[in-house]
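User: Hi! I have a protein structure encoded as tokens and I'd like to know what sequence might fold into it. I'm fairly new to this, so please keep things simple.
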């Protein structure tokens, strides 16, 4: 089943639930969205590739009676990865982003904004977690660092801004 509202729908929420993947790797193959709140999951296996056009909050979303919380791939292999790119705004994490229970990779990229922690206890969980933002990752103060659970972690800002990360199970910084 697929429950998705795309950019041209003018919807504030995007909810996608699919059996074997959402979008694909390569130029022009990611599912394109313009949402206020975003949630996506695979129910058996497959990767998730989303290109957000105006910044979004990863949250719980209900569309047509189907609720999806966060961004989750259900498979257990390294190919069940998550890639979320926002081209003009921030990515705010209010619900967990998990790739294959932590066995696959997660890449978050805010090319013209920040990656922010929106709710305490909601983590980015993957084998290799990559966080790239134009103007900062996380923020100073209690509960504002981006929470991760990773084997390997890489984070960078491309123009300015500090990086605040709280790792929960030990990691190697790449």
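Assistant: Happy to help. Inverse folding works backwards from shape to sequence: for each of the 174 positions I chose a residue that suits the local structure. Here it is:
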């Amino acid at each position: 089943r697929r429950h998705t509202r795309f950019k041209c729908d003018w919807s504030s929420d995007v909810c996608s639930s699919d059996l074997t993947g959402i979008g694909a790797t390569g130029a022009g193959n990611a599912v394109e969205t313009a949402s206020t709140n975003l949630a996506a999951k695979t129910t058996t296996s497959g990767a998730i590739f989303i290109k957000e056009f105006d910044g979004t909050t990863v949250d719980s979303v209900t569309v047509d009676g189907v609720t999806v919380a966060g961004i989750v791939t259900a498979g257990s292999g390294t190919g069940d990865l998550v890639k979320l790119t926002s081209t003009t705004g921030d990515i705010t994490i209010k619900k967990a982003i998990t790739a294959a229970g932590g066995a696959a990779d997660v890449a978050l990229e805010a090319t013209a904004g920040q990656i922010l922690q929106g709710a305490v206890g909601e983590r980015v969980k993957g084998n290799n977690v990559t966080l790239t933002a134009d103007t900062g990752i996380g923020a100073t103060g209690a509960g504002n660092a981006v929470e991760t659970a990773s084997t390997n972690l890489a984070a960078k800002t491309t123009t300015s801004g500090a990086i605040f990360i709280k790792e929960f199970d030990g990691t190697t910084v790449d």
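A useful reference point when you look it over: Residues 1-11 have pLDDT under 50 and may be disordered. Feel free to ask if any position seems puzzling.
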